[in-house]
C-alpha cells in the first residue's frame, strides 16, 4: 500500500523517536500501530540518530489545491455546520474520531510543562481538547476561542472549564496581542479554514519567543472513494503541507506525530479526521516573516442562498462517509485476528 502512496516525492529527514521504543519503517504506513515519527526538513539535519527516507508527497492523484476550498471549508458554512453538529458533537463525532487517548497522545508534543503557562485553544469548540489542556495548565490561564457560539455554549457547561476565558473569534484573525501566549493549541479546526496558511501565521504571531504551536488535524486519504468524499467535504491536508505551512510561517523544529484511533491498527488510507499533531517553536519575537495578501473569504460579502444551501447539503452528505468509516474499521478490528493487518 505504501507504494500506492508514493508518486510525487519530497526528501525529508525522518527521525525515529527510539526513546519511546517505537521504531518506524516505510512498511508501517499501514502497519499495526501509529508510530511516533517526526519529520524535519533536511535543513535541520543536525539531529542525531536521523536517517533519510522518501515520504509520500502525493497520493495516486493530486488533491484539490488548498486555494480551491471544499464545500464546507468556508467560515459561513462551518458556522451553520456546527449550529447543528454542536448538539451531538461530543457524543457522536468524538467517540469515532477523537478519543481521550488520542487527545492526550496528540497534546504530548505541546510540552504543557507548567501550570502557569498561558495557552490559547483555537477552534476550541465544546472544549474537548481544552479538557486535556487543563490537566496540565491552570484553567484560568487558558482561553478557548471559536467562531461558533453554539459550540462554545457546550464548553461553558463543563465544570473543569469554568475558569477558562471563552471567546468568539476567527482563527485567521486572532484577538490576542503579538507575543502573548506560551502555547497555541488547535485541534480539528484547520479543516474548516479557507486559508490555513493564514491561521498558522496567526499562531506564530500570538506566541511568545520560544513558545510552541501544536496543531492537530486530518490527513488526506489515499483510498480513492475516501479521497473523493474528503475533497467534497473539507480540507484534509497532506503531512508535508502541514510542515510547509509551519516552515513558511517561520516556525523552527517542526515535527509531526501520527495519531489515530486504536482500532484502526495504523490504517491511514481512509484519511483520519484527527490524523496528526504538528508542532513548531517560535524562534524570534514579533510577527511572522511571512507576508500574505487579502483574506480568501470575505464573510461580509452576500452569498446566493441557493448555492449556499446546495454546497452545505452536499458537504454534509460527504461528511457522513467519515461517520461510517470508523464503524467499518471498528467492525474489521473485531473480526480480523489481533496481530494481523486490517
Ligand atoms: C471539529 S471541531 C473541534 C473542536 C475542539 N477543538 C475539539 O477538539 O473537539 C472544529 C471547531 O472549529 C471551529 N472553527 C471552524 N472554523 C473556525 C474559524 N475560522 N475560527 C475559529 N473557529 C473555527 C468550529 O466552529 C468547531 O467548533
From TrEMBL:
Region (SAM motif I): 119-128
Residue span of region SAM motif III: 205-218
InterPro entries attached to this UniProt entry: Methyltransf_11 (IPR013216), MPBQ/MSBQ_MT (IPR044649), SAM-dependent_MTases_sf (IPR029063), SAM_MPBQ_MSBQ_MT (IPR031164)
Coiled coil (UniProt feature): none
Keywords of this entry: Membrane, Methyltransferase, S-adenosyl-L-methionine, Transferase, Transmembrane, Transmembrane helix
Transmembrane region(s): 308-331
Annotated stretches, region: SAM motif II: 164-177
The keyword Cell division appears for this protein: no
CDD domains: AdoMet_MTases (cd02440)
Gene Ontology BP, a term: methylation
MPBQ/MBSQ family SAM-binding methyltransferase profile domain span: 70-279
GO molecular function: 2-methyl-6-phytyl-1,4-benzoquinone methyltransferase activity
Pfam family of the protein (one): Methyltransf_11
The keyword Signal belongs to this UniProt entry's keyword annotation: no
Annotated family: Belongs to the class I-like SAM-binding methyltransferase superfamily. MPBQ/MBSQ MT family.
Stated name of the protein: MPBQ/MBSQ family SAM-binding methyltransferase profile domain-containing protein
Encoding gene (name): Vigan.08G231000
